[in-house]
Task: structure prediction
Amino acid sequence: MPVTKPSPKSSTKKSQRGDLAPDRVAAILKALDEAYPDAECALTHRTPWELLVATILSAQCTDVRVNMVTPALFKRFPTPAAMAKASLPELEQLIRTTGFFHNKAKSIQGAARKIISDFGGQVPQTLAELITIPGAARKTANVVLGVSFGKAEGVVVDTHVFRIARRLGLAKGETAQKVEQELMQVVPQSRWIAFSHQLIHHGRQICDARKPKCDRCNLEQLCHSKDKTWQS
Ligand code: SF4
Result:
C-alpha cells in the first residue's frame, strides 16, 4: 500500500498543534515556575504612578539604569501634580542617561498632565484608559495593571517575551501585538502576570538574544528553536 507523505502545509499545522498542545504548554509553565518562583518586576517603585514613569523610562534602556535615575527624579517631582508643572529642561536633565530623553521627558510630563486632567490625579486601572496616557502603549499599560493592581487584561510583551515566546513556539507573530494575542490564547489568564515576569528573567539570565545558554536552560528539552546553542 503506497504511503502518502504529509504535505508541507499539513506538517506545519501538525507542528503548530504539537507546540501548543496543552500538556507541552503546562510543562513550559511548570519549568518556568521551578526556575523563577519569585520573578517580579525589577523596576523600583513605591506607587502606580512611579511604576508608570519608570516603565516609560525603561524603553530602550535597562531597568538597572532606570533605577539609578528614578530616586532623584521622584525626590524632585514626587507626584503627578509636581511633574505636570516641571520645567522640561530640568526634567530632561534628570532622565538624560536613560536615552531618548527629549521624548521621554515629554511623555512623562504629558502622562502627569493627562492623569491630573482626566483621572483625578490617580493612575487609572483599566487598559482602555491607560493606553490613552502619553508614552503608555499596551506593554506599559499591562505592566502597571499587572504589577500595581494585580489585573491581567493582557500579557506584557517586551523584547525578551517576544523572542522567547517565538523560540519556544508559543507564538509566531512578527509584532508584539500579534505575539500578545497568541499568548493570550495559549497561556491561562491566571498565569499571564507571572509568565511575562518569568520570561523576562529567563531572557536576562539564560535565553540571551545573541547566544542563549541552552546548556543551562531547564526548558531545553521542550525547546525546538533553531537558535539553540546546545542540544541534549
Ligand atoms: S533551550 Fe536555548 S533557545 Fe530554548 S529557551 Fe532555553 S536558552 Fe532559550
